[in-house]
Design a protein that fits this description.
With 113 residues, the chain is mainly α. It has one domain (2-110). Helix content is 79%, strand content 0%. Helix 2 packs antiparallel against helix 3 and helix 2 (25-52) runs parallel beside helix 4 (91-103). The model has no long low-confidence stretch (mean pLDDT 89).
Length: 113
């Protein structure tokens, strides 16, 4: 689970660097904020699952679905917070950073630990 989060962090940094080359500082910050809006909830979800995995197996599915709901809700909340906290957001770069971070999970199975 943490491997996917590390890939998201790397993908967010790469997206921010590319957006910075294209759109300058505003684009880099927007892409980083978009990626962080996805990566931070996933990191907290991974920590939560690693702590819950030590409990009895009966509570694990419920914890998973509650954690997944909280992850999605916090991602939406963070994106709304970005809109209010950073009014000069570059929307294309923000969505590019978000999508790159979301799709980084697809490559988690290719990385050997």
């Amino acid at each position: 689970m943490f491997k996917a989060v590390y890939l998201q962090i790397g993908a967010t940094i790469l997206a921010a660097a590319i957006a910075g080359l294209i759109s300058g500082t505003r684009g880099a910050l927007s892409a980083a904020l978009g990626g962080a809006a996805c990566t931070l909830p996933n990191l907290l979800f991974a920590i939560r699952l690693s702590l819950v995995s030590r409990r009895p197996a009966a509570s694990y599915p419920i914890e998973f679905f509650v954690g997944e709901f909280l992850k999605i809700a916090s991602t939406v909340g963070l994106l709304a917070t970005v809109q209010f906290a950073y009014p000069d957001v570059h929307w294309l770069a923000l969505f590019a950073g978000l999508i790159v971070a979301l799709k980084a999970n697809l490559f988690a199975f290719l990385v050997k630990t």
